[in-house]
Design brief:
heterodimer, A: alpha/beta, 9 helices, 10 strands, B: mainly alpha, 8 helices, binds adenosine-5'-triphosphate, binds magnesium ion
């Protein structure tokens, strides 16, 4: 905007974050272009969740700049509630509303936050649930759905807001192995429609298929970044090699 | 003792007991509505980020829980007129019960809200809901279910506590028993009869609690208070 430097859809510039005395994000600089899919991986506790949770303000950053869709976070002029409607967030534990049906989960925010007329939101919700393969589960409650089905409802819930960005925090790691692919297939479809995505995952098949870039984090810092091909076949650092050998073993 | 237990006198006094029972029911109902209002406000204050609200709510709740209801009742009964506020005994009684029970209701509501997993709040936040929208659409409907059984437990306590209003001469159920006891020197008849009526109210409310648990699809075991 007024800024001379080129801004991506998501722009981290020298971002730091602390939990108490723990420096969980160390001088992060990372730019995600519109329609780009970036996979974030790294060992447990390396700060992956914190990184993407900062983007929609679920965590506040301490210093540095984080610009999302042209708006600087923490700037008084930035309406965070408004910005969040443009950012879908898929949680590891789904976090569906248990007192709402699948369709109601999808239409709740569009109706009350986006102020879309109910009939229109419901039609869109039905279409989205059909798209994620759950046309027959529209009136089911989350407790009546399998983990994979719940996560697909959660993705449809985000898409119902017509977001510009989708963030995924280990969307398949709480799932039984046989349900992982049904969720990944939906994510691939979303990526292929041109969504800007940041995905924390260790699913290398997914990364190879749709990611333009893999970012490897360790101890709060981005240690390595490259195309999936480069990263998986020729990791550059000892830490990424050690990490890959661990996740490849099973 | 039982050989001269006078059922006749009880039957003679039945209209008075009936009156007392009805008064106990509606004054308890009104007090419980008041307690809900007080409880909601206190719980909301308690969940605010602002420390001042929280401290005020906690101080109030502690003060109510630490002192006997009888002392609170007398405090209002003798204190309000000093402030120039002369109210009928019945009104003072209802205010006292509302303010007292409200403190317990506040804790029940707060616990209900806090029992909703953090992820629910985050899902609401992430979809761009405001605080009020999150509360209304996501948190309160879920918390409501959890709080119904303990709230009915509190209603049972309130009904029993309302007996203290007899001490400021409100003609409720216990007062009827006292009258029988003192007019005819028949304390056994008087107090056994009111005990039976309180038991009746207790089972009524317990039945309601069980019914609501089933209706809300909760485990009956969880409704015990
Ligand atoms: N709310 C919090 N308060 C204090 N420390 C936290 C908090 N959340 C995370 N941390 C710490 O910050 C560090 C980074 O956590 P984060 O959840 O971002 O890691 P992660 O890479 O997502 O790990 P995982 O693979 O286990 O999900 C960890 O050391 C964690 O213990
Ligand atoms: Mg994580």
């Amino acid at each position: 905007m007024t800024n001379a430097t080129k801004t991506g859809m998501i722009d981290f510039r020298g971002v730091n974050k602390w939990f108490g005395s723990l420096n969980v994000l160390k001088d992060i600089t990372l730019s995600v272009e519109p329609r780009e899919v970036v996979v974030v991986c790294g060992p447990s506790g390396s700060g992956k969740s914190t990184l993407i949770r900062c983007i929609n303000g679920l965590e506040a950053i301490k210093d540095g700049d984080l610009v999302v869709d042209g708006q600087r976070l923490g700037d008084p002029a930035t309406n965070m509630t408004q910005l969040r409607t443009e950012i879908g967030f898929v949680f590891q534990s789904f976090n569906l509303y248990p007192h709402k049906t699948a369709l109601e989960n999808v239409t709740l925010a569009p109706i009350h936050v986006r102020k879309i007329p109910r009939a229109e939101a419901e039609q869109a919700g039905r279409d989205l649930l059909a798209k994620v393969g759950l046309a027959d589960k529209i009136n089911a409650y989350p407790s009546q759905l399998s983990g994979g089905q719940q996560q697909r409802v959660a993705i449809a819930r985000c898409l119902g807001m017509r977001p510009k960005i989708m963030l995924f925090d280990e969307p398949t790691s709480a799932l039984d192995p046989e349900m992982i692919s049904e969720v990944l297939d939906v994510m691939v479809a979303v990526a292929e429609e041109g969504m800007t995505m940041m995905v924390v995952t260790h699913e290398m098949g997914f990364a190879r298929k749709v990611a333009q870039r893999v970012v490897f984090m360790d101890a709060g810092a981005i240690v390595e970044s490259g195309t999936p091909e480069e990263f998986f076949s020729a990791p550059k650092t000892d830490r990424s090699r050690a990490f890959l050998s661990k996740i490849l073993r099973h | 003792m039982l050989e001269n237990f006078s059922f006749r006198t009880i039957i003679e006094y039945l209209p008075l007991f009936g009156q007392g029972l009805i008064t106990t029911v509606w004054l308890s109902a009104l007090s419980f509505a008041g307690a809900l209002a007080v409880g909601i406000v206190l719980a909301a204050m308690n969940l605010q980020r602002g420390r001042l609200f929280r401290i005020a709510a906690k101080a109030y709740i502690d003060a109510v829980r630490a002192t006997p209801l009888l002392a609170q009742l007398y405090f209002l009964y003798f204190g309000l007129p000093r402030l120039g506020l002369v109210l009928p005994e019945l009104v003072v009684g209802i205010i006292a019960l509302s303010l007292n029970s409200g403190a317990y209701v506040a804790e029940i509501i707060r616990a209900g809200i806090l029992s909703i997993p953090r992820g629910q709040v985050e899902a609401g936040v992430a979809s761009g809901m405001t605080y009020v929208q999150r509360m209304r659409l996501v948190i309160l409907p879920q918390a409501f279910k959890v709080t119904i059984p303990p709230l009915l437990g509190q209603a049972i306590v309130l009904v029993k506590d309302s007996a203290l209003l007899s001490l400021i001469s409100v003609s409720e159920l216990t007062r009827a028993g006292q009258l029988l006891a003192s007019d005819r020197f028949m304390p056994a008849e008087g107090f056994i009869t009111i005990a039976a009526f309180y038991l009746l109210l207790y089972y009524g409310l317990k039945g309601l609690a069980a019914l609501s648990s089933r209706w809300l699809g909760l485990q009956p075991a969880r409704s015990s208070t």
